[in-house]
Design goal:
This protein has 258 residues and is of the alpha/beta class. It contains ten helices and seven strands. It has helices at 2-16, 40-45, 71-75, 91-102, 108-121, 137-143, 147-159, 182-189, 219-230, 248-256; strands at residues 82-84, 87-88, 129-132, 168-170, 193-195, 207-215, 235-243. Helix 9 links the parallel strand 6 and strand 7. Helix 5 (108-121) packs across helix 7 (147-159).
């Protein structure tokens, strides 16, 4: 029933505020020829992924950065196979995702999924199933929807792949990640996820595309991947709309050591 109501709500808002005539970030009027319902200014403002990305998590790397792995991936091992993203998380990207997550604009997820779809077409990926990072039940009830599930469902429809939002379950209401360092994030999220025992057979030897809106240090992705691998998944690919920046501290230290 919740999914039916959500679909009706998305359709209702799209009728009132058609996403093809208003920019999904700034709200300026556009015409339907604009890709992803973004105006020309916002298209140029967003920091799109380029050729240089971390070979493990997919973060954008600075041009003069000396390594093939970002700072976080050089310092830690991940449980997932590889990660991909579309944009670097900055002020413009934060504003767009904030509208999607906290302003009751779930319908924006469809446009973000279109961006993600074009990104994934550029990679040699063929997952068996798409799974969103789950929210704790109480938090999802308060917000009204899980933004990761909206992205995953929309992307699965575009890809023609199975989608399941009930396989992976969040069993702990963890502290908010903002303000925590990498070590604190890992401890905070440890063992926060599990796989439904009644449905775990679905994952046997499957390649999973794990979906979320933002990737920061990988702590959440690793915790999810651990649960999925333990349930029998063969590979976990992490895909987010945005990813945090590679730390400038590492960039400075690398240049200092030349």
């Amino acid at each position: 029933m919740r999914e039916v109501l959500q679909s009706l709500s998305e359709g209702f808002f799209d009728l009132i505020y058609p996403s093809n005539i208003y920019c999904i970030r700034c709200g300026n009027i556009i015409d339907d020829s604009r890709p992803y319902a973004l105006c020309d200014v916002c298209v140029r403002t967003l920091k799109w992924v380029g050729e240089r990305t971390c070979l493990r998590c997919g973060k954008i790397l600075q041009e003069n950065y000396l390594h093939e792995l970002c700072t976080d991936c050089r310092d830690m091992e991940h449980r997932y196979t590889r990660g991909f993203t579309c944009v670097e998380y900055g002020s413009a990207e934060r504003e767009l995702l904030h509208r999607f997550k906290y302003k009751d604009k779930a319908y924006l997820g469809r446009k973000l999924a279109e961006i993600m779809y074009d990104r994934i077409l550029s990679e040699d990926l063929d997952p068996d199933i798409l799974i969103p990072v789950p929210m704790y039940r109480r938090k999802e009830k308060t917000r009204g929807y899980n933004q990761a599930a909206i992205l995953a469902k929309s992307l699965a429809e575009l890809m023609g792949k199975p989608f399941n939002a009930k396989l992976l379950i969040r069993i702990a209401d963890t502290e908010a990640m903002s303000g925590l360092n990498a070590g604190e994030r890992r401890r905070n999220i440890q063992r926060a996820f599990t796989v439904s025992t009644r449905k775990s057979a679905i994952l046997k030897a499957k390649r999973v595309l794990l979906l979320d809106d933002i990737y920061t240090t990988g702590s959440t992705a690793d915790a999810c991947a651990e649960a999925l691998v333990e349930a029998g998944a063969s590979e976990i690919f992490v895909f987010t709309f945005a990813s945090g920046a590679n730390l400038q501290k590492d960039f400075v230290e690398s240049n200092h050591n030349i």
